[in-house]
Every structure is written in C-alpha cells, then in structure tokens.
Amino acid sequence: MSKEYQEGSVIDPSAKEQLMLYPLEQTQMVSKEFKSLQIGIPRENSEFEKRIALRPEAVEILTRRGHQVVIETNAGLHAKFEDKDYSEVGGRIAYSAQEVFESDIVLKIEPPSEEEINYMKPGKVLISAIQMAKLRPEYLKAVLKKKLTTVAFELIQDKVGGMPAVRAMSEIAGSTVMLIAAEYLSSHNDGKGIILGGVTGVPPTKVVVLGAGTVGEYAARTAIGLGTEIKVFDRHTYKLRRLKYSIGQHNLYTSTLDVVTLTEAISRADVLISAIRSEKGRTPVIVTEEMVSKMKPNSVIIDVSIDQGGCVETSEITTLRNPTFKKHGVIHYCVPNIASRVSRTSSTALSNIFAPYLLEIAEKGGVDEMIFSNKWFMKGVYAYKGSLTNADLAKKFNMPHKDLGLLMAARL
Predict the structure, then answer these.
(1) Which domains does the chain carry?
(2) What's the pLDDT score for residue 279?
(3) Dihedral sign (CA 321, 326, 332, 334)
(4) How far, in Å, CA of 380 to CA of 383, rounded?
(5) 10 Å Cβ neighbour count for 277?
(6) What value, to the nearest 5°, has the Cα angle with vertex 70 and ends 66 and 36?
(7) Distance from C-alpha of 327 to C-alpha of 409, rounded to nearest angstrom
(8) What's this model's pTM, rounded to 2 decimal places?
(9) 281, 395 in Cβ contact below 8 A?
(10) Going by C-beta distance under 8 Å and a sequence separation of 6 or more, which residues neighbour residue 389?
C-alpha cells in the first residue's frame, strides 16, 4: 500500500478499488448472555430403546462452540456410533452413569429410572421423553424432590405449533411399518407368502391404515409406492382431505370410522396398520376382537399405537427379541417405539432437532432464559425447580401445580 494512502493525504482510485476487493477481518459478535454448557448423554438401558440423543457431528459442533459433552461409554453402540467417533470430535467418554448424570443438562431419550434421577444434582436440567401412558407418580415425586427442571422433548412445539420430535419419529415409523409388514407376509416368517405390493397379473396386496396423521401419511406413501391397494380411515374428514391433498393420489380410498365399512375392509385386508393416537391418556379401542377373528389367516396387524395401550383389542406389548404373536390366526406386531428399530436414522433425526435447541439455550444464557423467552419451548416443561407445571399431569395424579405463565410474569 502506498505511503500517500497510509497517511491519508492522497488516495489512488485504483488502490481504493483494489482494497474493496479484499476481505477484511472483523471480530464476530458474541452474545453477552452466552453460557457454556455441560451436557451429559447417558447410555439407554431399556430393551426398547436403541437410539442416542446426539450424533458425533452434533457433538463436534457443540464442542467447537465451547461446550462440554460427556458421553457414557457405548451409548451410541446400537446406533453404530463408537466411543472413538465421539472422542475424536471433542466429546469426553465417561465410564460411569453417575458421572454423566451429574452434568448441568442431561439429554436422554427414555425417561431416566429413579436410580438415575438420584444421580442428578439438585437444580439441574433433564431433557427426555416423558411417555404419558407409562408415567408413574413415583417418577414425578423423585423429579420434584430433586428440584429438577424437566423438559419432555415430545411436547416441545416449533414456532408454528407443530411438534418436531413427534413429527420426525412418526415419519420414520410410518415408512418402517410397511417394511415390517412385508417381512411378516413372507413365507420365511410363516406369513401368507405374498409380496407387499402388486406385480403383473397378480392382484395387489390390500392394506388398511387407521389414522390419517403423520404415521398414516408415510405408511400410505410407502404402500402406494409399492403398488398396494390401500384404504385409510380416520375420525376427522379434514385429516383425510389433507392426506389426499398431500399425497396427490386420486385413487386413494379414504373413509371416516364407520363400523360397517371398517369391518368389511379389515376382513379383506392382508395388512392392518393401527396408527391412531390419543392426545391425552389411552388410545381408544377401534378394532374389536370379533373384527380380528374375521381377518384372513396369517394376515398382519401392526399396532403403532401400542405405547398408548393400542387401538386393537387383541394387541399386547411385545419386544424386539420376540416381536410377534398370533391370535385368531393373525400375526400381531406390537413393539413400542418402532422408530428405534432403525436407530441410526432415528438418532440422526433427533440429533438434528436437539443440537439447535442446545445452541440456542447457550446463546440465550441458560435453560431458564430459553424457557421464558420461547413459549414454544415452554410447552415441553412439566416440572420447574421443584414445582409441577403441567396441568394435565397434575390432574391425572391429583397433584398441585404452578402455571409457568405466572412464573414468567413474575420475572418481568
């Protein structure tokens, strides 16, 4: 650069133009509220749960931003992530569950056991599923006694009122159920010995789906792609209309839950997918035992709503080790948490949701600030520093609760 330019006395136009083409260094703005987080990822011990909350790529992003991530050894094993995958990107491997649960924020898929809750320090934060249908009052009492702030990730909404975690897992479950159906229709699994779909000169497989929500939508997409004859039933006409619009198939048969029509459709079906969920409490029984008894021998029922009790009267919870049983000659698949069957895909989907939450928590200055500045995140909070804050849980277990909205107003 010329001396004249340095002194500011003469500016050569060509030099000025050249200067404009070079990138200039600039300090990055850092939020004054930024808080470094210590995040614990424990190993899942439930036989139904094979996922992990954060994949290695997410851990790398967090550690590069100055956060500490502690992962229990072998936590990612079922999702095919090894300890070295995490340690190589800055994660710290812990060899005891207690060490992980002593973190400021514990991020877990399944709700922790009471023993695991006892590992946590008072006033810390737990982000996990809550699983309303399985929840016991002893769990809530343990959480409240520790004065934990607990967030149910399946209740967290996005800014337009959707539930990102539920949507992601429902998409995966809906796509997976048809693959399961194909597996158990095969002769190898003592099924009907038919292909899921249609081939030239052979009538297509008949599939009935109960529920036009996300699971039903993705099950229908997969079934249509395979060439099946599919019928979708739901209580609400607007959901059926939205489904037809979303899929864009004019030959998709839809119907409200008329008992006569449903009974006839089920009696002809090769596959029945039950995907009706209840917003509160147990899923109502839609398919009676009598309906099941009229189904074809070796046809398949997959009850996706089994984690809420199931809407098929003959359904009973099964495990990944022993996933099926027969009743009235019909194969029943009633494993809760179908998304865990494809644990790596599910872990990646959840990690893509959780990592941005954690980054925003840090930028806001902590979990409290995140809760009280984002109503959509507040929706997931069911206990706050020793107080139950979810009205539905308080009513279910006859326990007192505090309104988080009032606590927020008190902070203003």
Answers:
(1) 38-152+342-411 (3.40.50.720), 170-336 (3.40.50.720)
(2) 66
(3) negative
(4) 9
(5) 18
(6) 25
(7) 55
(8) 0.84
(9) no
(10) 381, 382, 383, 401, 402, 403, 404, 407
What phi and psi, each to the nearest 5 degrees, are found at residue 236? Answer: -110, 125
- Residues in CB range of 169: below 8 A, 6 or more apart: 339, 346, 349, 350
Instruction: Give the helix, strand, coil percentages of the chain, each rounded to 5.
Output: 45, 15, 40
Q: Do strands 253-256 and 324-327 pair parallel, antiparallel, or not at all (unpaired)?
A: unpaired
What are the φ and ψ backbone dihedral angles of 36, each rounded to 5 degrees?
Answer: -75, 135
What is the per-residue pLDDT for 206?
Answer: 95
Q: What does pLDDT average to in each consecutive run of 10 residues of the chain (412 residues)?
A: 43 47 47 83 90 97 96 96 97 96 96 94 95 85 95 90 91 94 92 88 94 94 92 94 85 90 96 85 86 96 90 91 94 92 96 96 94 90 93 90 77 56
Looking up tokens 């539905």, which residue turns up? 392
Which amino acid appears at position 2 of this protein?
Answer: S
Q: Are 64 and 96 in contact (CB under 8 A)?
A: no
Residue 9, Cβ density class (10 Å: 0-12 exposed, 13-18 middle, ≥19 buried): exposed
Q: For residue 305, count CB atoms less than 10 angstroms from its CB and return exposed for 0-12, middle for 13-18, buried for 19 or more.
A: buried
Distance CA 144, CA 388 (A): 7
Contact 380, 372 (CB under 8 A): no
- The rounded distance, in Å, linking the Cα atoms of 120 and 100 is 9
Between the alpha carbon of residue 253 and those of residues 176, 209, 241, 247, 355, the distances in Å are: 21, 10, 11, 12, 40
Looking at residue 283, what DSSP letter applies?
Answer: P
Kind and range of the H or E run holding 69: strand 68-72
Q: What is the pLDDT of residue 406?
A: 78
User: Do 73 and 51 form a contact (C-beta atoms < 8 A)?
Assistant: no
CB 63 within 8 A of CB 91: yes
The residue whose two tokens read 């975690």 is 165
Q: Which of 122, 138, 152, 155 is nearest to 386 (CA)?
A: 122
Would you state the pLDDT for residue 411?
59
